[in-house]
Fold these 2 entries.
Entry 1:
Amino acid sequence: MNTRTIKDLAPAEVRGKRALVRVDFNVPFDDAGGVGDDTRIRAAVPTIQALLKAGARVVLFSHLGRPKGKPDPKYTLAPVAPVLAALLGGKVPVKFVPHVVGAEAEAATKALKEGEVCLLENTRFEAGEEKNDEALAKGFAKLGDLFVNDAFGAAHRAHASTEGVTKHLRPAVAGLLMEKELDYLGGALEKPKRPFIAILGGSKISGKIDVIEALLPKVDGILIGGAMACTFYEAMGFETGESLVESDRVEMAADLIERAAFRLTLPHDAMVAPSIAEASEAHAVKRDAIPEDEAMLDIGPESAISYARAIASAKTIIWNGPMGVFETKPFDAGTMAVAKAMAAATAAGATTIIGGGDSAAAVEGAGLADKMSHVSTGGGASLEFLEGKVLPGVAALDQR
């Protein structure tokens, strides 16, 4: 990785300085209004602790949800501050600032003492954030003496808080989480231990077509799961019943099958049912025997065993997208089989990378996140990285 990180900064560049850190605290809330999942907050802690140890005054800012460019109490970051304070061991108070830019926010950052932390309000409360407005970017730049981007999950967006601010504030470097994300994903693509396989799932082939195209020349195999398999089935002339099929992508799927040859593996069987609500009627069928009045809602048991075997034989595995409707039993079986196989592969020395999104949620829910080499915090960003696209929030940072 050629991007400069906080490790590359001289002590004088950090001690006593305001480190403006773009974090990804876009977390879900529970029914009581508290943080429902602190995964992304925990992921930012190493960078915050490293900056505190170096004597920085840490200023955090993040987006949350889609408040449409104006303040909305439903999307305030206020509940995050006490959670972060607890994760920092309760020794470092986290001051919440109910502003994200302007005189009050500037005053709050300047009032911070060495080793203190403040969390600013939601960046998307400002209409110019998603438009990458230059005036707003300049306003953000006034809140720090150096910029640290640790929000990999937002790095694929050229927003005022991720890309625009770097035009007005230097040094601009990556945090430890950003570094870890780029090292794992970049290492998998550039120097993978082989065999190298990718597992791609989810509902639509259209959302994964670019990543399939980008990975085909680099991997030894791609395992397909989820409803997107049905578009491939349609291309093979199989009955797909009530399954989700992208009819406008069938020709594309046929072309991929032809070009990929043995490197593309589709499920041998499927778990089907009349609907998700009628899960009690779920049963396994061969892939060429899907009933016309039922839908494929998970890969079948034979496929789960076969995929687990393929995972066990690999040295580098990237997974993005569930194998079925994993939120509803028994359609979680395929996704859980893959998660367990990847955990076992990690223990056997393989490099296992979960590409964020639903896959990350699945391994977290299964209690297997710490059994993987790396669980990405950014589904969209990891997909775009795997597609070979430049991430604006990374490209804007200082290079070595």
Entry 2:
Amino acid sequence: MERYAKLIILLGVLGTSASAIITRISTAPSMVLAMYRMCIASLLLLPGVLTKARQDWKMLDRRTILLCACSGVFLGLHFTTYFESIHRTSVAAATILGNTQVFFVALLMLALFRETLSRRCWFAIGLTFFGGTVIALSGAGDGNAMSGNLLALLCAALLACYTMIGHSCRRRNVSTSIYTFLVYSSAALTLLLLLPLTGDSYFGYEPVNWLCACGMVVFCTFLGHSIFSWGLKYEAPALVSTLQMLEPVFSTVWAALLFHEIPTPSVALGGNVVIVGIILYCRFTAEQEGL
């Protein structure tokens, strides 16, 4: 398996790229779709978690459970804002801006832990910020597209918070299955509690929405993000992160083939700048850490 790790990770990226396309097919409100996805994923993980050894559960303390719950809150809100952005702006813009979370992580690390970055890393961040600005402003003449671009940036910031809290949880010796279950169930509960505030109902939507949620769980969650976690065992984090940047490329191709949605020149330009910036950032941080 190690021999084909890169190819398998690429297949995982292909799986996650289907998220934007599946979202476009759905008809339910974004928070409802996100809630369905998290509920289904939690239920599928439940049997395996219940059979876990008691020792795995005994290693959990209140602080760890609270951190997992907080991580799930951010994940649920991330999915909601991401799905909504896809309904408002182009697939290319939403997926590219939504994948800038690595830079929000860098800024949070600087603000909270005073973690320093090299000048080359800041150059890469600046490059990506410029590309993201070009994409965001591409919808300036369209209020709906502009709000979608801003939601995509917000979803990236929420994912950064989820990533940082999740990193803290994993350092506390929580098993992968238990951590994933706690995060997904917390995300589901968060959306279940917030949904009444939007005025939307829990049920009453077309059956296609259940199919969309199941498709996301299978292709995007289990055959997507789970593969990334598996790939970290064989490949460097920088390489895995770089390969993940192909997700917007795959999503844009899917959108062009299925919806005849061709990116505007400004989105294409900004997207290329963002991808180059993230690739450079991953490379520079790997060199800085001696990986």
